[in-house]
Amino acid sequence: MDPRDLSVASVQYALPDERIAQQPLPERDASKLLTYTKGTIRDRHFRDLAEELPGNALLVLNDTRVVNARVVFQRSTGARIEILCLEPAEARPVEQAFRDRGRSEWKAFVGNAKRWKEGEELIVRSGHVICHALRTGTERIAFRWTPDELSFSEVLELVGHVPLPPYMKRQDADADKVRYNTVFAHNEGSVAAPTASLHFTPSLLERLHDKGVRSTRLTLHVGAGTFLPVKTERMADHHMHQEQVRIPLDALEDLVRQLGQGPVVAVGTTALRTLESIYWHGVALLQGTATEHIDVDQWQPYETPADRCPDAAAALQAVIGRLHLQGSTVLTGATRLLIAPGYTFRYVDGLITNFHQPGSTLLLLVAAFVGPDWRRIYDHALVNDYRFLSYGDGSVLWR
Length: 399
Description:
Helix content: 10-25%
Distance between the termini: 18 Å
CATH superfamily of the largest domain: QueA-like
CATH architecture of the largest domain: 3-Layer(aba) Sandwich
Strand order of the largest sheet: 2-1-19-18-15-3-13-14-17-16
Number of strands: 19
Shape: globular
Number of domains: 2
Number of helices: 11
């Protein structure tokens, strides 16, 4: 099956507004947990996760940190102009751009843009910090600020807001600064949370460790495109958003040791897409077509003939070998990988994930992972009062 031939209607379902979680539960691991194994669905709670994973599993966590990427300016007329920072205007690592001092230029979504006059500089203040914004092109914003010894990350922490997704119909609160990040968040750069990871607590991670479940970490900086439903009728006309990745050599070596020894469980669709992107970078290396950094196109898996696809271990060893040759300890770059029905998974056996929007690429990924039973899983969740989307409940799905 070629996903370009898919109709977006194949992953539509009715999601009532009242089923979209607007607030997190008081305790992260108190959420419900749907488990799906060989066609069987059961209801648990997320705090029971250690009982659902075998002791020889490897958990792969996305350690990205959500930043206060939404900045609200107000014109003298009273009009609100909202800017959501997406990625640096020039191609460079997002972590580097957050270290900019004095000025920084970003690609951004601009709300109420028609009210923003050409050449007009907007200003927002928080205490002694003053931040200016000027449009330098379509969806390009130049920021400058004082004191200029502050990093852009520090400025956003003071003047910005938590970028809650638009289906949370409320303003962000102080609690969201903590709850819309994971307990293991480390590398700044996301404008949306890796939501499956929000359920984990230090005590749950400790129980998993005590059982023998190992974990490793990588980074995919989640972009705003993760909010967006597919708006085209056919997938062939949909363009995947690019997201930056950072994969330590240690994580690659953890993965190669795990192959054939036990299941690999991706915590979230972001971790899964990063893992599978590693394979396609390895394929490009073995074919001699790879760039210095990982750069996976959305259609690469479906345009590569099966007889030119090496086994999973060979592709992974090619990636590790290239890093050793370069004397590097981390693989960086970006991925646009689209995973949809017809995709062949190389590394991931289990997926921990929330319940996703109708007509989204995230739901396409779930449909690829569990097959047509995705609809039975979602029907069960709807009938049994599961909470949906970012602050909603979770699931463990076995391929």
